[in-house]
Amino acid sequence: MTTVEDHQLRTEDAMPKARRTRLSLIRRALRSAPLSAWFGMIVIAAYVIVAIFAPWLAPYGEAQIFPEPYAPWGGQFVLGTDQLGRDMLTRLIYGARNTIGIALVTTLLSFAVGMSLGLLAAIYRGWIDQLLSRAVDVLMSIPLLIFALMLLSTFGSSVFNLIVIIAILDSTRVFRLSRAVAMNVVVMDFVEAARLRGERLGWIMRREILPNVMPPMIAEFGLRFCFVFLTISALSFLGVGIQPPTADWGSMVRENATLITYGDITPLLPAAAIALLTVAVNFVVDWFLHRTSGLKDEH
Amino acid sequence: MSIKAVSAPREKGAPLLEIKNLRIEGFSDDKWHEIVRGIDITLRRGEVLGLIGESGAGKSTIGLAAMGYAKPGCRISSGSVSFDGIDLLAASESRRRALRGSRIAYVAQSAAASFNPAHRIIEQTIETQLAHNLDRRDKAEQGAVDLYRRLQLPNPEAIGRRYPHQVSGGQLQRAMTAMAMSCHPDLIIFDEPTTALDVTTQVEVLAAIRNIVDQFQTAAIYITHDLAVVAQMADRIMVLRYGRLVEEAPTRIMLKTPQEDYTRSLWAVRKLGRPDRPSAEPVLVVDNVTASYGSTIKVLENVNVRVPRGRTVAVVGESGSGKSTLARAIVGLLPPISGQIVFDGTPLPPALKQRGKETLRRIQLIYQMPDTALNPRQTVRDVIGRPLEFYRGLNGRECDRKVGELLRLIELDDHLIDRLPSELSGGQKQRICIARALAADPEIIICDEVTSALDQIVQEEILKLLMRLQQEMGVTYLFITHDIATVRAIADEVVVMHRGKVVEQGPKAEVLSPPHPAYTDLLLSSVPEMDPDWLTGVLTRRAEKGGLKAAGN
Amino acid sequence: MHPVVRTVLQRLGLGLVTLFFVSIIIFSAVEMLPGDFARAILGQSATPETVAAFEREIGLDRPPVTRYLEWIGQVAQGEFGQSFASRVGYRRTVAEIIGPRFLNTLFLAMMTAIIAVPLALALGIAAALYRNSWFDRAVNAVTLTTISFPEFFIAYMLAYIIISRDTFMGTQLAQSLPQWLAGSIDWILHAIPKFPTLANVNEQTPFGERVWRCMLPALTLTFVIVAYMMRMTRAALVNLLASPYIEMAQLKGLSARTIMLRHALPNAWAPIVTVIAFNLAYLIVGVVVVEAVFVYPGIGQLMVDAVRSRDIPVVQACALIFAATYILLNLTADIISIVTNPRLLHPR
Fold this sequence. Notes:
The structure holds three protein chains of three kinds. Chain A is mainly α. Chain A has helices spanning 22-31, 35-52, 54-57, 88-124, 126-139, 144-155, 159-186, 189-197, 201-238, 249-255, 268-292. The radius of gyration of chain A is 24 Å and the shape is globular. Chain C is mainly alpha-helical. Chains in contact: A-B, A-C, B-C.
């Protein structure tokens, strides 16, 4: 019983393309970027600037309390004050630094753990892969928010706990993806060629596998950041995330929620700030994926 | 059920298909490029036209255009396609749809991908008839079973009830032909129907297709890259290159006296050969090796192979024969259960991790697909330089100099040294792989189907290069292939494998001339030759043998 | 045994094993209680005797394996132990607290699913069929935006719109706009039904009243779910439509309708069901935030309160229920994929 041979493919002997430098590739990519991607990049840049230069940009101190709570917009307080009399604009600016900073650290930690384990599982396969994959399957059977709530109830909601708990829980998703991507690379002949040469595992990981794994992982970093960012905000909104007096957008929404009943839009500002950043990152990642996955639109 | 011994001359009727000045563009890299640059085709009723060319010639695109269809990402930019007086390009989509399947049918390269896994074969075979309201269901089913019978499918009454994944590749390809034939179309387009099949299966499918096209006097366009195959199937051949016509002539005339240089070079590939040389002392001996992948099925069984130094030993077989597995066992990726492999007098440690750097250096492997054998993020300098650095400790300028030397050796220009694989052609990439193997200065190079994924002319160039390198450097080759023409071209000795066992081995002249063991006979006789009467001859001989056997019993 | 039956049984077994391990994890969370947990609950001024009694009460003095087996045994019988909040004054079992709340959440989830699933599927299929049209691009942009929003943002936006019915004309914004614009905005706002912004229901609430009060929470969840589901459905279908056998069907001259119904659809069940299951699972998580915003007495709100007051038995029970639902949904998707796979249904 014969089966389909794999020698059916024929490679093209087309004309080789001209060499392009990395810089010109980036320039070309930016020029063809759609409006949404540009919008996203500008917004992200703006947020990063605000986060870094918060102390210089904010009109008042982060925890500085004024005698007038729930002040209306205008005058001394551009966006009014919150329930304790702190300037909203200041809190928003510092909130950028805190929320984004914590989310970024968490995502980096999640990637460090998830990617190394994922690559390890793909390279060694065998029982290591089985063990890790089954463990991750079980951990992922509990929805992340629920799991985080549970662990926070045990350990308490300090910033450190928050970062570690969410990083470890999120690393399971990163593990799954990096393992899948690495598996595709590991079965390539050039990896086997390196093994046959006698190369050590570290070299193979660094020089053969990692460079080919990066593009999808970079996109995933953006997506995971959004997810972590939203989760931390949700937890803070529920009161079990970042604790006062640290300025944080999620808890700011909760603290000022009663203003909604008076038709005041102020509590929506921190929520909109969260939404805007996430939208921006999603637009940029969407464009990035569209380019690197090689999916061409049909005409 | 008899197969006609000699194909009757086909009735040439009125012109059926007229394509004038066809131009088709394809979209890639954010731009439209021309794929087909002004093609004219005239096809008469009952005539079989062969479209031949290498990859990128545009043959598939033209085949689809004959149905008025352009793949997503392609567009027909100018020209006319006229089928039986109907202008397909100007017609409405519903008009075109009415013609497709009922009067113009298509047979794709991969039957497994073209059948819907969720429906039975017979449902999909008669679907076209029912959709175009040509027949009632029971009549359609009878017709389908009749077609299965004519195409020599086993168990024609019952096979239609099966699902596509339940039958073999060759059977499915014939079922797809039945599906195309079901409405008795005027024209069928065969798009590389046997390229994905083993040689021994191919013979049966070719015979079935030719037979049925004969019986129903259907016009056909037969697209392939294989010259010998097109010689069996077509009345007239058109040679295409980069979307343009190179030459067109009736089959026999074109085979005997090709006019253009390009056509001649396509033909010449099959004529490559080498004089016989005496044998030599073995550098590698595979001594009674048996191996398996853990289960009870042995992938290699009592394999004995002797590779003389400085010579080329070709290991030939079809899929599942174990030839690639043999390579894996030799390099240490599949330690044998029993037996040993002796290299240069000393037995090799069976597993890869037990071997030292020096041992690994002396045995090198070149892969079939240069696309997956090269790291897309490494330049030519990195790829060729690494073995130099790893094995011989060369660095910096010294290393660069040596890389330049190797590039010249593989007939490539120095300025390619900073290129990435995506900026090289298929032939160039394979040369880089060869240079990578040579950089280690090995004693034996195992070539695992290294020319199978390349176009024919490039194949010839690579084979010539390998022969020259052997001449100059005295390196030994273990050349794994499924293609007999390649074996004839480069081998000193031949090993024939079938289902994990060695069927025959010895000097090339001995193995390739009769008498043969049964499998070798089957294998060699299944390889198409450049003679239009070859297929007829093979079928006659096999029918006679079958008749003799029956008579003998 | 038929491969389909065998595979289904394997999956069920796997699901049970996963549930078992999940219960161990949930239980172990309690094991990791830091030393001064009891003191944290009871307050700094608690006497050592009270602390000891408390620890004895929640069983920290017995070996973990015993406690786990006891706990899991009771869970299997539907008893989840006693709430910590029960200590002050009257005893309350976890089960009687959770029961009604769980039903409330189920009600909300089903209401959302009934609205969201057909809508998302329809949009996803339409987007796949008319891909790269203006419709597809517009829907893509809108859904990409929506999935980026935090649930509480959408929730408060909707609440704000409803409240603006009464308050809009009085705001500075309305004053600064030209009369006709402010008037038309006000008219649009009044055209929207005045859904309640607090979804307070209880056992006595009649069905119609329930639905009315749950409209805003359900709409919020619908926004989120439809976006995700539509995108995933579109992706799955586009992938399917690129299959070679679909092109073959086109080359056979079959109509678009025939191709969709006979060729695409039978192979689409598995990916679509997976998408639905995945998103229903997402719904479980989204419910937590939405219940908090609209003060809906569901199990999500319960869990958050329990976390804040560190009422461990309730937290464990809630987590277990969420996890079990999640596992069940994934299992269903898996099984439907298996049962519609032609290669498994008709083996060689």
